[in-house]
Design a protein that fits this description.
Elements (H helix, E strand, L loop, with lengths): L11 E2 L3 E4 L14 E2 L2 E2 L3 H16 L4 E7 L4 E8 L7 E8 L8 H17 L3 E7 L3 H9 L3 E5 L4 E7 L4
Parallel strand pairs: 7-8
Antiparallel strand pairs: 1-2, 2-5, 3-4, 5-6, 6-7, 8-10, 9-10
């Protein structure tokens, strides 16, 4: 496995989006989707602290966290990344978009890029994602990407997985 940190932070591009490093200058428009350990930032200071923690996790080899940038403006419209599981050859993939960019194919593209990176560059054998029963769009996206529902974690939360390497 090739775990982070990498000599150069990985930037990945498709026709419509790029997964790139998030800079402090990107944060102002991202407060509503800034999370760390399921806690949402309420202020720009909290979002900056969360970015610092995510960056620290990256340098400790525990995460790869990208901003999803729309290629036409290079503006961050969401986040996507692996947040735990590398020690087992796996990765929990989490993503979120600003509301005004949902339903336009950006997340589908981001997830495909992240999955490919996880498989081909990190060497992951499995990717998993956790969502809620109410998040019907996420469930449909995971289905389209061939994730399989594997667990009911609670009354509200469900887990999906995608096997990347046959055992």
């Amino acid at each position: 496995m090739k775990l982070p940190p990498y000599p150069i932070f990985p930037e990945i591009k498709s026709d419509i989006i790029s997964l790139r490093q998030i800079m402090k200058s990107d944060l102002e428009g991202l407060i509503e989707i800034s999370y760390y350990n399921s806690v949402q930032a309420k202020t720009s200071e909290q979002a900056a602290e969360m970015l610092d923690q995510i960056t620290s996790d990256y340098f400790n080899g525990e995460t790869v966290h990208w901003g999803i940038a729309e290629n036409s403006e290079n503006k961050i419209i969401g986040t996507c990344g692996y947040y735990r599981g590398f020690d087992k050859g796996e990765g929990e993939l989490g993503c979120i978009l600003l509301p005004q960019y949902r339903g336009q194919g950006f997340m589908n593209s981001a997830m495909k890029l992240a999955i490919e990176f996880g498989k081909n560059h990190i060497g992951l054998k499995k990717v998993w994602a956790i969502t809620t029963h109410q998040n019907e769009k996420a469930i449909k996206l995971l289905d389209r990407l061939n994730f399989v529902k594997v667990a009911e974690l609670s009354e509200d939360r469900i887990e999906y997985e995608l096997i990347l390497v046959e055992k």
